[in-house]
Every structure is written in C-alpha cells, then in structure tokens.
Amino acid sequence: MAKAKLPSDLNLNLIEMVQSARMLHDAEARPSDLAAVYWIEAKQTIGNYAAPTANAGEWRVPLLAETADAVWERVKAMTVEGKLGYKSKISTRPAAGQVDPDQRLLCVRTYDARDTIDVERVGKALRETGVTNMEYAPDKA
Predict the structure, then answer these.
(1) 10-69 pLDDT tens trace
(2) Across the strands, what pairs with 87?
(3) What fold, for 7-138?
(4) Using CA atoms, how far apart are residues 133 and 60, in angstroms rounded to an integer?
(5) Secondary structure, 3-state, the chain
(6) CA distances (Å), 102 to each of 38, 67, 91, 107, in order?
C-alpha cells in the first residue's frame, strides 16, 4: 500500500511550484512593465556559486526608472550566467513613502559579506556594466 503524503510534503511542493512559476515570469519581465509585484528576480543557474549563509549581504544600486530596464537586462544576464552573486532583484515601483516616483532599487545578493574577495569581485563586475552609484549592505550589522 502506498504511503500517504504528509501535509508538510504537499506544502513544500506547492511552494516549489509557485517559486518556479514566479522565476519563469521574472525571466521575461522588465521593471517598467510591472507594478503589481514589487520585485522581479533572477537567480544564478550556470556555474557553481556558494549557497547563501546567515552572513549574506547585497550591493544596492539606486536607479532611475528610465534606465532601470537596460541595467536590469545586463545584470539579469550576468546573474544567470554566474558572473555576479546568487540572486539579483529590482524594484518595479518606488518604495512606500518614497518621495521620487522615478526611483528604483537594484540589489545583487552575495553569499557571505565576510568574503570580501567575493564581495569586491561582484562590485567590480557591476561597475563594469556602467553602474557607479552603489553601496554594499551586509544583512547583519
């Protein structure tokens, strides 16, 4: 007799299905096309980048809406190809209470803020795309 699935197994499968559908959607999405979701994401799929630790962090890049699509296309491709961190995301609208309605935020996640060589490698790669105004923020202060 077949063993019945536990409710937690079903919940994990549902979460995986939703995440997969989201990533398929985000693969084609542009920040200027969406406002219904706050972030669109890209994850590394080529190469072997370390899994995030409890000490992860991110490069934060403020952008104007008029340049967000072009920058996102470059960063998304580099993320998927394993040339940046494990994940990148970009806001599709300004944050709640933000004064400038044309402001967007690009974040490029690194696996561990304590790995300064990796953090600087990712920062250098971002600068090579033309991004200049950015700061690094570890998850843990």
Answers:
(1) 566 766 666 666 665 677 777 777 666 789 999 999 988 999 999 999 999 999 999 999
(2) 43, 109
(3) RNA Cap, Translation Initiation Factor Eif4e (3.30.760)
(4) 9
(5) CCCCCCHHHHHHHHHHHHHHHHHHHHHHCCHHHCCCCCEEEEECCCCCCCCCCCCCEEEEEEEEHHHHHHHHHHHHHHHHCCCCCCEEEEECCCCCCCCCCCEEEEEEEECCCCCHHHHHHHHHHHHHCCCCCCEEEECCC
(6) 14, 10, 11, 17
Handedness of CA 50, 88, 53, 134 (dihedral sign): positive
